[in-house]
């Protein structure tokens, strides 16, 4: 009897502790994901549209908004979207990657429910299934400040999203076939800006003379770092992946895959048209995307290629630019959780994980790995297997160690790559890149302090070079060839979180892992229950739902 009441009580409580806080405003969206013909390069190709749009619609939200987004998958394949950089506190159920969510079957719908918290800034969403991202389905996501939280700059006249990325004319299925057969994607064909190529002659943006505009620049591409610049117009950096920065002015910015910057640009030059340019970095052949900005009193067709800003050469320039990024410690806007962790330089490190990326061509098939393991997604999402208590039937924890093998194996171990992490530990992660190519790493569910990028190999004494005062708290970090990057963070967000290469080929072929952060209490204070609306698949499909977390 008593037990029945207790169970009933738990069920009521878990229903009350839903994914969203009822008192905060709601934003509702219905998205129809379909195929459609797009011709960004003048050649018709099969694109992925959201409500008929390529790129997809912008989500314009304000801190504490509850987002309820119903996605109808009208493709012929399972589909998922991830909200890159949105932290989903206690709520990895909404992260939209195959380790946490069953994909939405074709012809059905699924509703994401999540709340955007105090991470004022510019973000993107994109598909995580198959190679869908190569066909579209991506878009911008803004988190604005509530009126009561001032941001460290005056309200701009307008606010523009600039999605830059490399692009292939080949279909996403052809690209997937390359990877599935163990080949590389090869070189992209162009760089697009908001889905348009350089031969698009109409202005994408307009500016009133004398006014200041905010541009949110994100790299939504598959592999190439891009240098972004605007003819004759320096950019004042104000925000990076959810942190307000010291407001330095830049002639150009290197934006690595998955990264976002917000800059202010003032229309204080001759009233005409200007080019904005995004060109590939560290590639033999440079691909350049261009788009036109017109002053409202500027003459049509007045953009010229004269004085088009030159791109920097080599990666030392890029590293110096990284070193110039500083967090604005006095900006009164929101700080990453937990409140107070901005004194990160004083927190003792309890664990160091060193990650080395590697590539293998065993049996003629390309694979990428981390510390000897190349991740594969099991049919049952890792988080669901763990929640239902059947993890041992789906994956093994900790196949990799915190220290990579001395010699990377010729043949990678193909398996789900999951490491566990003690709740609330303060951890150092080192990304050591022994290869000649640039890497870009993202951790979902968190913001981390990007304390160092240096050439060479990491060793404990390199900690002396860390920025322990005002490193920017962000979600994606690049690692230059034969270099390392160090990040620090507190694993205080319970859930199953994806640490991945943002280079699509690398990620698709195994360069990712999941971090399981379990709260020992199984408490709703630390993590939400599996939502009632969650899709079920694999071995948990017909299992009885476990008892919900308690308060
Ligand atoms: C989505 O778009 C397709 C193609 O235009 C249409 O057939 C379908 O009815 C739409 N579905 C929804 C839910 O709007
Ligand atoms: C975005 O939302 C903010 C806050 O509600 C609003 O002031 C702004 O006009 C919106 N922008 C767009 C482009 O809808
Ligand atoms: C699918 O869409 C319908 C109609 O909008 C909605 O009532 C239902 O809750 C959605 N289902 C899921 C699983 O999100
Ligand atoms: C940091 O933010 C403060 C408070 O909004 C602002 O006054 C200051 O100019 C900013 N500092 C820098 C260096 O950008
Ligand atoms: C992590 O996994 C190891 C080995 O499976 C286990 O002994 C340890 O207790 C786990 N730690 C946490 C924090 O879950």
What does this 3D model show about the protein?
The protein is mainly β and 551 residues long. It has a domain at 348-540: Cupredoxins -  blue copper proteins (Immunoglobulin-like), CATH 2.60.40.420. The protein is built from six helices and 33 strands. The protein has helices at residues 2-16, 172-180, 315-324, 382-387, 391-394, 504-508; strands at residues 26-38, 45-50, 59-62, 66-73, 81-84, 109-115, 121-127, 139-144, 159-167, 190-193, 203-207, 212-219, 226-230, 235-240, 243-244, 249-250, 252-255, 260-266, 273-280, 288-295, 351-360, 367-370, 373-374, 413-414, 418-422, 426-433, 439-443, 448-455, 473-474, 476-479, 483-490, 495-501, 512-518. The longest helix is centred in the first third of the chain and has 15 residues, at 2-16. The two termini are 21 Å apart. One 2-acetamido-2-deoxy-beta-D-glucopyranose (NAG) binds at residues 32, 34, 72, 74.
């Amino acid at each position: 009897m008593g037990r029945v009441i207790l169970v009933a009580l738990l069920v009521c409580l878990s229903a009350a502790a839903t994914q969203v806080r009822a008192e905060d405003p709601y934003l509702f969206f219905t998205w129809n994901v379909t195929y459609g013909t797009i011709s960004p390069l003048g050649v018709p190709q099969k694109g992925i549209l959201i409500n008929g749009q390529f790129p997809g619609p912008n989500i314009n939200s304000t801190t504490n908004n509850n987002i309820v987004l119903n996605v109808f998958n009208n493709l012929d394949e399972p589909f998922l979207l991830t909200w890159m950089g949105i932290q989903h506190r206690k709520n990895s159920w909404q992260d939209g990657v195959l380790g946490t969510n069953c994909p939405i079957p074709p012809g059905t719908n699924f509703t994401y429910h999540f709340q955007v918290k105090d991470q004022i800034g510019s973000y993107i969403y994109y598909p995580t299934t198959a190679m869908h991202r190569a066909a579209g389905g991506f878009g911008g996501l803004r988190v604005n400040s509530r009126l009561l939280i001032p941001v460290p700059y005056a309200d701009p006249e307008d606010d523009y999203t600039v999605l830059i990325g490399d692009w292939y004319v080949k279909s996403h299925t052809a690209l997937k076939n390359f990877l599935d057969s163990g080949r590389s994607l090869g070189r992209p064909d162009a760089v697009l800006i908001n889905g348009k190529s350089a031969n698009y002659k109409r202005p994408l943006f307009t500016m009133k003379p004398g006014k200041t505009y905010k541009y949110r620049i994100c790299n939504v591409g598959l592999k190439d770092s891009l240098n972004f610049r605007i003819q004759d117009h320096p950019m004042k950096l104000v925000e990076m992946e959810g942190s307000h920065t010291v407001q330095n002015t830049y002639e150009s910015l290197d934006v690595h895959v998955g990264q976002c910057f917000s800059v202010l640009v003032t229309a204080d030059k001759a009233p005409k048209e200007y080019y904005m340019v995004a060109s590939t970095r560290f590639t033999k052949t440079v691909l350049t995307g261009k788009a036109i900005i017109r002053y409202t009193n500027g003459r049509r067709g007045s953009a010229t290629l004269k004085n088009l800003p030159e791109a920097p050469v080599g990666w030392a320039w890029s590293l110096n630019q990284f070193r110039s990024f500083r967090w604005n410690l006095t900006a009164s806007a929101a700080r990453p959780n937990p409140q107070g962790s901005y004194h990160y330089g004083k927190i003792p490190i309890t664990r160091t994980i060193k990650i080395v990326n590697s590539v293998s061509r065993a049996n003629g098939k390309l694979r990428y790995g981390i510390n000897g393991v190349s991740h594969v997604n099991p049919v049952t999402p890792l988080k669901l297997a763990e929640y239902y208590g059947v993890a041992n039937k789906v994956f093994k924890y900790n196949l990799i160690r915190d220290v990579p093998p001395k010699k990377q194996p010729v043949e990678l171990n193909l398996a789900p790559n999951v490491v566990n992490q003690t709740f609330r530990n303060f951890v150092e992660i080192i990304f050591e890149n022994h290869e000649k190519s640039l890497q870009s790493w993202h951790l979902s569910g968190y913001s981390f302090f990007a304390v160092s990028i240096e050439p060479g190999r990491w060793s404990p004494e390199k900690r002396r070079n860390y920025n322990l005062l005002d490193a920017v708290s962000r979600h994606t970090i690049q690692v230059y060839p034969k270099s390392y990057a160090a990040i620090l963070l507190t694993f205080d967000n319970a859930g199953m979180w994806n640490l991945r290469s943002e280079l699509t080929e690398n990620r698709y072929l195994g360069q990712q892992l999941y971090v399981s952060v379990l709260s020992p209490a199984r408490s709703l204070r630390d993590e939400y229950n599996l939502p009632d609306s969650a899709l079920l698949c694999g071995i948990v499909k017909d299992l009885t739902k476990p008892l919900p977390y308690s308060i």
